[in-house]
């Protein structure tokens, strides 16, 4: 059930889901920034079903706009899915079909590109005593997938496999555990920047 905090998204999504009788220059508008999403352009939707109901139909022009709705929606686990807007002709056919039959055309199978959980796990080293004693899950992902993928895309124009999240999380976990040991040896309950191993500091 959508909570009160989602009313603005629900309203904007409902507006975006209604196709005008006269085809406009763009397909729909981004539910966050209101930027136009052109026919045939890539856009993003949330994987959570409550964000994709017919009344809601949220769509976002990029991943950063998808992230805007997360504090409001407060999903337990979510990711963005890349989709392709229909062409102007396809949109007209879909609108006509829905008006005639009341049934939506089958959407293209989405390609999942953002995930907060890793893909098939690669072999990992045994957990250290620090992680085991703290009760923290040894395989928990510590990397924000969307930020990492945006960074790599901006730096080199490359795409990023979800399978890198596990190994990178292991590296971060190893650094954090060493920093914890350094703080403990110094008699502190707070991990400071100087507790990070020198080899990882500029």
Terminal CA distance = 48 Å
Strand order of the largest sheet: 3-4-5
Total helical segments: 7
Helix content: 25-40%
- For the record, the count of structural domains works out to 2
Structural class, by secondary structure, is mainly alpha
Shape: elongated
What's the overall average pLDDT, rounded? 76
CA radius of gyration:
22 Å
Q: Give the topology string: H per helix, E per strand.
A: HEEEHHEHEHHH
Q: Which consecutive residue ranges, at least 5 long each, have pLDDT under 50?
A: 12-23
Largest sheet: 3 strands, antiparallel
Give the topology:
Blueprint: H1 7-17, E1 28-29, E2 36-37, E3 42-46, H2 63-68, H3 70-73, E4 80-84, H4 88-101, E5 111-112, H5 129-134, H6 145-156, H7 165-185
Antiparallel strand pairs: 1-2, 3-4, 4-5
Key terms:
202 residues; mainly alpha; 2 domains; 3-stranded antiparallel β-sheet; two-stranded antiparallel ribbon; 5 strands; 8% strand; elongated
